[in-house]
Amino acid sequence: MARCNLCGSGSVSLAGSDKHRFFYLCGDCALVSVPPKYWLSVDDERARYELHDNNMSNAGYVKFLSQVVDVATRVVDDVVTDNCLKTGLKVLDFGCGKEAVACQLLKDKSIDCYGYDPLYGRTLPEPVSKSGQYDIIILCEVIEHLRDIKRELTRINELLREGGVIILRTQIYESPSSFPSWWYARDLTHVNFFSEKSLSAAAGMMGKRFEKTEVSDIFLLR
Which residue from 94, 112, 159, 194 has the fewest beta carbons nearer than 10 Å? Predict the structure, then answer.
């Protein structure tokens, strides 16, 4: 692997491997990534997603997303306070899945939410191409799937209005040496893995700062 998918650094070295693939660590931004030759096809990734029961009837999944929705609700209050904006405030759940459950939960709180998922782009409305459409963008268990991560984060950032906030949920690693046995790395649809350092690097590339929340795997970029 010649260069880091996130920062473009050539300071990339082998971090470890398991029986399926190799993991490479960027010495600059600390992103750990999987080379393209190990990526699943889009059809295989979609098929794996279809094994999940990610809908409103799954109480565990609803509870999982409710944590993100609670954070989003507080961020909405911050955005309204900062921008004196209530009417027209819009949230985008990027990578919402087939059922767009988080959007349903936000709409129950009278928050205008739109769902988009690259795997289901034909069945859910795509974000409009015009930039600056959304005040908040949710990436819940999404960033680890993005293949051209730098391009996708740039695209996502362009969809935000000035001062907009990204709510990001992903598991972070503490040591690259743990990858061969880490449960999160065994999911073959995951091709990017982040530490706090690499999330901070991603935030900086987007002109934002990285913030923790009270939930250990939910972060803000604003």
Answer: 112
Q: List the domain boundaries for the chain.
A: 39-171+207-221
Q: How far apart are CA 190 and CA 145, in angstroms?
A: 5
* 3-state SS class at 141: coil
For residue 92, the cross-strand partners are 114, 137
* Cβ 70 vs Cβ 221: under 8 Å: no
10 Å Cβ neighbour count for 157? 18
Q: Of 80 and 85, which is predicted with more confidence?
A: 80
Position 44 pLDDT exceeds 60: yes
Q: Give me the sign of the Cα torsion angle 29, 219, 221, 116.
A: positive
CA dihedral 171, 45, 156, 31 (to 10 degrees): 40
pLDDT score, position 180: 80
pLDDT tens for residues 163-197?
A: 899 999 999 998 888 888 899 999 999 999 999 99
